[in-house]
Design a protein that fits this description.
This protein has about 250 residues and is an alpha/beta fold. The protein folds into two domains: about 150 residues, Rossmann fold (3-Layer(aba) Sandwich); about 80 residues, 2-Layer Sandwich (SIR2/SIRT2 'Small Domain'). It is built from ten helices and eight strands. The strands form two sheets. The chain has a six-stranded parallel β-sheet, with helices on both faces. Strand 2, helix 7 and strand 3 form a beta-alpha-beta unit. Helix 6 runs parallel beside helix 10 and helix 8 packs parallel to helix 9. The structure holds 2'-O-acetyl adenosine-5-diphosphoribose (OAD). 2'-O-acetyl adenosine-5-diphosphoribose (OAD) binds next to loops.
Length: about 250
């Protein structure tokens, strides 16, 4: 890793001097915690499973138990996973320099939060939470927790189904999350993009927005990504290896 030393030192200096730092994380951030990525060739979820079936409203309506069970298994994996050295470095930095770092994540796990970045902006939802599939047919605001048991649980009165609270293909991002993420990107002096393929929008556009607003943009990834052209520097390595050396 000797050839990385100089760019790492330079970036660490920029982070030390910055009053606003934004980290955009993707699935690679949690890979060393044992949570599978989506697009890595052999291990990525979308190399083994069909996103149209498992990550769309249409897929859920076509076979609710199948999709529910798939998420139940992923939820179990998230519950038993632990933050890795990369998450912990960001959490520790936030404790040491409060108000400097904004973490924006595409991940639906809670590892940033458990590592200490409680205010991490979630662009793609929270796999450990549930929400109703549809608005209540009777125009009420029912509690998801009151749903009748089943796979997936249903409203005992109107039959509405419970689904995981993650953003599926074709859906809008949670209200406010993208605005907050854009603000963080635009106001950052350093934008660090960690463990994302840059294939999914609008998250993938945040690096370019930060750069246009004057931020120094760096990417941490063991492989090439689709947004490498937006970076001033590419640091080839993993989140757990490199983030403790940067923060
Ligand atoms: P991807 O699976 O598309 O990309 C993961 C990236 O992480 C790849 O570029 C890998 O090279 C990199 N990577 C792998 N291991 C790493 C490690 N240990 N350290 C650092 N990087 C590593 O995941 P995302 O870009 O997050 O959507 O995918 C974006 C969205 O697509 C996800 O949020 C998900 C998916 O469909 C939703 O859940 C809505």
């Amino acid at each position: 890793m000797a050839e990385l030393d100089e760019p790492l030192r330079d970036l660490r200096g920029r982070i030390d001097r910055a009053s606003r730092v934004c980290v955009l994380s993707g699935a690679g951030m949690s890979a060393e915690s044992g949570i599978a990525t989506f697009r890595d060739a052999l291990t990525g979820l979308w190399s083994r499973f069909d996103p149209a079936q498992l990550a769309s409203v249409e897929g859920f309506r076509a076979d609710p138990p199948l999709v529910w069970d798939w998420y139940a298994e992923r939820r179990e994996g998230v519950r038993t996973a632990q933050p890795n050295a990369g998450h912990l470095a960001l959490g520790e930095f936030a404790r040491r320099r409060p108000g400097v770092l904004t973490v924006v994540t595409q991940n639906v796990d809670d590892l940033h939060q458990r590592a200490g970045n409680r205010d991490a902006i979630r662009l793609h939802g929270d796999i450990l939470r549930d929400q109703w599939l549809d608005g209540c047919g009777r125009g009420r605001t029912c509690e998801v927790g009151q749903a009748a048991p089943g796979r997936p649980p249903r409203c005992a009165e109107c039959g509405n189904l419970v689904r995981p609270s993650v953003v599926w293909f074709g859906e809008m991002l949670p209200a406010g999350a993208m605005d907050a993420a854009e603000r963080a990107a635009r106001t950052s002096e350093v934008m660090l993009v960690v463990g994302t393929s840059g294939a999914v929008w609008p998250a993938a556009g945040l690096a370019a927005k930060a750069r246009r607003s004057g931020a120094f943009v760096a990417i941490v990834n063991p492989h090439a990504s689709e947004i490498d052209a937006e970076a001033h520097v590419l640091l080839q390595g993993t989140a757990a290896q490199l983030l403790p050396r940067l923060f």
